[in-house]
Structure formats: C-alpha cells, structure tokens
Specification:
Two copies of one chain form a homodimer.
Chain A lengths: L9 H19 L7 H12 L3 E2 H8 L3 H13 L3 E5 L7 E5 L1 H10 L2 H9 L3 H25 L3
The structure holds a DNA duplex (30 and 30 nucleotides).
Chain lengths: ~150, ~150
DNA sequence: CGCAACTGAGTTGTGCACAACTGAATGACG
DNA sequence: CGTCATTCAGTTGTGCACAACTCAGTTGCG
C-alpha cells in the first residue's frame, strides 16, 4: 500500500539518482566546457551529423524552447553551425564544426568513467536500462491517456 | 565496453525516466497547485512538521539557493509559515499552516496513481528503489572522492 | 488560385538546480 | 574579552525544462 512517506517513494529515488548522475557529469564535463544536456546533443551529432532541430528534439524529447537557446550556446562555443534549409526555410540544419568533431576525442573516456562510478557490471547496466525504459514507456503512456496532447 | 552511443547509455535512460515521472506529477499535482519539488517539501512537512530550512535541505539534498525561493512561493500560496528561531536568529523554522495541513487530504490518492502509472508490483518497486539508492550512493561517493567538497 | 490549417524554430515567462557570494548570528579559542 | 572561523538563510546569475505564444513558411483542399 503506497503512502505519503517520502522515503517510501520510488520517484524520489529516481529524482535523487538523476541529480547525482548529473552532478557527476558536471565534474567530468568540466574539461569539455559542456553541460549534460549539451553533451547529449553532441552525442547525438557525433553519432549522426547534420540533423534538423526537430529531429534532435525527437531523439532527446526536448522542444525548441529548450533546444534553441542551447544550440545558440553551442554555436557561440564554436561547436556547431546552424543553417536554414534551402528547400524548407522553416527548418534549421545543425552541423558539427571541425572543433565540434574534434571534441569527440576528449569525450572518448567519459562512458567508462561514468560506468566505473555507477559500480555496475554490464549485466547490471543492461537490466537497469531495460527497467528504466519500461518505466518511462509506462508512465508516458499513462500520462498521455490521462492528459492527451 | 562503453561507447559514446546515446542509446547505450544508462544515464540517458535515467534522465528520461526522471523527466517522464516529473511530467506525470505535473498533471497529477495540477489539482493541488504544486510543482514536484514543492510536493516533496510538503511530503517532508506532512511527515514531520516544524523543520529548519537546513534540515529540509539535508533530507532533500537541496541548498538554500533552491529552497529559499521555493519556500517563499509555498508561503505566498498560504501553505507554510516561516519564523526565525529566538535562540538562533540565523535559523528559520518552517511550519505548515492549517491550509497546508488540510492539503494532505487531497494528496492521499497520489501515491497510488503514480504506482499504477509505473506499472510495477510492490516487489518491482522495492527492487528498483534499492538499485537506485545503491546507484546514487555509488555515484556520489565517486564524485566526492574526485571533486572533494 | 486562394486561403485556412499546420509545421518548425524561436521568444517569453516561470520554476527548479546549483555555484558563488553576502551578511548577520553564533561559536571557538587564545 | 576580543576576534576569527563557521553556520545559516538569502541573493544573484546561469542554464535547463516546459507552457504558451509568435511568426514565417509550407501544405492541403475546395
């Protein structure tokens, strides 16, 4: 039976874990002068360059209200270029600059550092990821049913 | 072997899950006119009233930079009182108003709604909470070792 | 064609999260 | 007793996250 006690709640555990991981990234990403959300955008671009703002938003579940200023900062840091599409003037293509591509080298070691800090073996990581994905899916489905977009 | 691929990463799963749960709370807490962090403070006070700002901060791992304006908003909403201690003028005691106490009734149903949305049985919740707590602990220990307070 | 509906990016405003700081109150110690 | 370090709450500034909105560009459709 669920109660209103703070320490019963899975949600608080999730919130705490997420903040703890972000705090670790803050330290690790200091070298690269990136915040965690900026690092996520860079990850997406390192994986596949030349993306529309819309597509980055879909992958990270972030809207233009978050991405526009974030991309402006990445541009100011010299890491990405932004160009409107010729065939659709509404759309903006985001591309890595040479500096942005080069930064990938400095990021190579990060996943292992984070992995070590989490103290999970590969199985543990995979299991937890699967559970978290299922949880996200379930929660989003419930919310969308209750509060239709 | 950890890689820089976005969809490999446990951290992104954690970040996504945390945002999904917060988005669900946003809908559920609409009735109470509370944000999720405000709800956490109310939970802490419903559990034990009359707390110093410092103690709330310790329980929720939030500093005064976050709590001071949040408590100001809870006060403006008529839910809490804030009074400086007579024996230590630095400390501020946070107490529930009658309205704040009464709001608890409206919150009684929330844990079950969230539980249903997450689609986990009691065992699943307990297991996940344990894993998340362990993860938080491990990550915080690593970070504190690497970047001493 | 004409125009209404929609789409994509951006802006504005609110509220967290956190670093860095201020300033008053307290405590420790020679 | 004096003074120096510490503690506590609050403020300021930056950067997400998100709702609500604007506005130009595009599409659909009669």
């Amino acid at each position: 039976m669920a109660s209103l006690r703070l320490d019963d709640q899975l949600c608080f555990g999730l919130y705490s874990a997420s903040r703890a991981v972000t705090a670790l990234y803050r330290v690790v990403l200091e070298d690269l002068d990136l915040t965690y959300p900026q690092y996520l955008v860079m990850l997406a671009l390192w994986e596949r360059d030349n993306r529309l703002v819309k597509d980055l938003g879909a992958e990270l579940s972030l809207d233009s209200g978050t991405l526009s200023p974030l991309l402006k900062r990445l541009h100011a840091a010299g890491l990405v270029e932004r160009n409107r599409q010729a065939d659709d003037e509404r759309a903006v293509m985001v591309s890595l600059s040479e500096t942005g591509k080069a930064l990938r080298e400095k990021a190579e070691g990060i996943p292992d550092v984070i992995g070590t800090a989490m103290g999970l073996d590969d199985d543990g990581v995979a299991r937890m990821r699967a559970e978290l994905d299922r949880l996200t899916e379930s929660v989003n489905a419930y919310r969308e049913a209750r509060s239709p977009a």
